Amino acid sequence: MSMLHQPPLLILGIETSCDDTAAAVLHGNRILANVVSSQDEIHSPYGGVVPELASRHHLRDIVPVIDQALKTAGVKLTHLDGVAVTKGPGLVGSLLVGVSMAKALAAAANLPLIGVNHLEGHLLAAQIEHEVAFPFLCLLVSGGHTSLYVARGRGEYELLGATRDDAAGEAFDKGAKMLGLGYPGGRVIDQLARTGDPTAVRFPRAHVKTGQYDFSFSGIKTALRQFLHTQGASAYRVEDVAASYQEAIIDMLLERLLLAVRHLHIRRVVVSGGVSANSRLRWRLRAAGEELGLEVYMPSLKLCTDNAAMIAFAGAWRLACGQRSSWDLGAFATLRL
What we know:
This protein has a five-stranded mixed beta sheet, with helices on both faces. A five-stranded mixed beta sheet has the order 8-7-6-9-10, with helices on both faces. The two termini are 15 Å apart. It folds into two domains: 10-124 and 304-320, ATPase, nucleotide binding domain (Nucleotidyltransferase, domain 5, 2-Layer Sandwich), CATH 3.30.420; 132-298, Nucleotidyltransferase, domain 5. The longest helix has 27 residues, at 238-264. A hairpin with a 5-residue loop joins strand 1 and strand 2 (21-27). It contains eleven helices and ten strands. By secondary structure, it is α/β, with parallel strands linked by helices.
């Protein structure tokens, strides 16, 4: 499905799939505003996202965040060409806040509405800043998702493999909790690992027997728990343990990605999602790209984590192709891409 040749659309994007309340205004590839209200402090005491708290804070923040996005962009609701909103996958209570607000705004201003798959937003995020030709491989890796896709065109995606249990981002967060590092854990582990030795502890790398492109991260969490139980937290520098744990997760991600590169002979690679902000993963991807002659694309840090700019971008081309969502658009906890 190709983009129609027409002037760029001015789109409001709304994203509330998990714990970040986000709104953005895009004009074509130009980000006029990209506002994100984080709930990290709210969920930090619990070591993870509490769905009920997340939806309550979306209700509190959604109107101010949208108002700030429109103000920053210097546009009014009536100037827009459409409203794009995440319809899933995610926490249903959180999604309903965004979907309900998007429907209300679109109806009030008589604007077209389009529901966007959160995963498609991540998959296309790099195209906001880079000209990424199709086909390409996309490693989509975040707190809730770890999947490997072939993108043959916009709207033409093939799932090659996915995690059998935990997502990579979840493994980072739970590992950090075991190490007493707080939440969100991926960011803390990334920072500590920069001064650690990634070879200090040899954690196992999982290999799924069926599904050559599938991932599994439950085993490495168990290995870390057993290590801490048998060795004790003071047996190694926490920086070394963090670096070793991180290295094992990255090894498993890159092993599947590069296997697909070899098997499918696709030289363009996109890595997106919250874990793509990890500095070690980004460094190793660039190194692998240089060694193997790959085109490697990663969104800038502001577009790696959940944001509404990617939702506006993914929604814009669907609106340009004539697609519309009906007023009974719902929210979906699970949604295939």
